[in-house]
């Protein structure tokens, strides 16, 4: 039996610990995501959804508890080790796509591969393949300002997939899109995620989209609670 791709064990996150005003966001969150599993994360505004994703994605450190990737605890790892794990094993998609405006769609997908040691030829080929797969191959040489919101999110998805991550984390990836574009984008995201066998944790306010995933967890009072899908 293989280790889960992502495992959170008793994760707590407190801001200003030990000071007069402490803000406790996560209070012992537990979560396990297996290879090939797509989990929806729902939460009321201000519940700490982004904090949870940042801790799970090694962008922020938990106050206490463990964050494990493929069975390896990285909670107390050095910054360099966390950076390598994040670069090699995790892909991120955010509601605000954060594409580099001075580069084309193709270049935005090529750059993270070059940073990870890929050759320029291999990086360009993979970027072309990914952009074509999500239906914007003919727009790959356009800059973000020349693309629609949905097209920009597709580029952001390809960038997250560029280094073939084992874990995909997405924070409201369709939240800024119109309903039709959001459905198309989400179906593309789900299709590629399932085809590659990645694990994925996708935060969304859209309960219809959440119901398409394998499991649904709710962040409430700093804890993760698994929901029956029919109650979502």
Structure description:
- There is one protein chain.
- With 232 residues, the chain is of the alpha/beta class.
- The protein has a single domain (6-231), classed as Rossmann fold (3-Layer(aba) Sandwich).
- The chain has seven helices and ten strands.
- The protein has a six-stranded mixed sheet. Strands 2-1-4-5 form a four-stranded antiparallel sheet, with helices on one face.
- The longest helix is centred in the C-terminal third of the chain and has 18 residues, at 179-196.
- It is globular.
- It starts with 5 loop residues before the first strand and ends in a 5-residue tail after the last strand.
- The model has no long low-confidence stretch (mean pLDDT 90).
Give a nutshell description of this structure.
By secondary structure, this protein is of the alpha/beta class. Helix content is 34%, strand content 26%.
Defining traits:
alpha/beta; six-stranded mixed beta sheet; 232 residues; four-stranded antiparallel beta sheet; Rossmann fold; 10 strands; 34% helix
Q: Could you name the CATH topology?
A: Rossmann fold
| Main sheet makeup | 6 strands, mixed
CATH class: Alpha Beta
Described by the principal axes of the CA atoms, the overall outline is: globular
How much is the average pLDDT? 90
Protein name: ABC transporter ATP-binding protein
Family: Belongs to the ABC transporter superfamily. Macrolide exporter (TC 3.A.1.122) family.
Keywords: ATP-binding, Cell inner membrane, Cell membrane, Membrane, Nucleotide-binding, Transport
GO molecular function: ATP binding; ATP hydrolysis activity; transmembrane transporter activity
């Amino acid at each position: 039996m293989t280790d889960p791709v992502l495992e959170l064990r008793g994760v707590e996150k407190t801001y200003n610990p030990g000071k007069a005003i402490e803000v406790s966001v996560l209070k012992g969150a537990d979560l396990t995501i297996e290879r090939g599993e797509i989990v929806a994360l729902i939460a009321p505004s201000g519940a700490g959804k982004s904090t949870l994703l940042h801790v799970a994605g090694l962008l922020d450190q938990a106050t206490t508890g463990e964050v494990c990737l493929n069975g390896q605890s990285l909670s107390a790892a050095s910054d360099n080790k966390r950076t390598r794990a994040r670069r090699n094993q995790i892909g991120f998609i955010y509601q605000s796509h954060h594409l580099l405006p001075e580069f084309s769609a193709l270049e935005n997908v090529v750059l993270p591969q070059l940073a990870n040691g890929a050759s320029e030829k291999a990086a360009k080929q993979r970027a072309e393949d990914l952009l074509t797969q999500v239906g914007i191959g003919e727009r790959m040489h356009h800059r973000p300002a020349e693309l629609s919101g949905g097209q920009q999110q597709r580029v952001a998805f390809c960038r997250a997939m560029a280094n073939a991550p084992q874990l995909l984390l997405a924070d409201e990836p369709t939240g800024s899109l119109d309903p039709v574009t959001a459905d198309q984008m989400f179906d593309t995201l789900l299709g590629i995620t399932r085809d590659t066998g990645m694990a994925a944790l996708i935060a969304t306010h859209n309960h219809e989209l959440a119901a398409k995933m394998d499991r649904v967890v709710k962040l409430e009072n700093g804890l993760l609670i698994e929901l029956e899908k029919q109650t979502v």
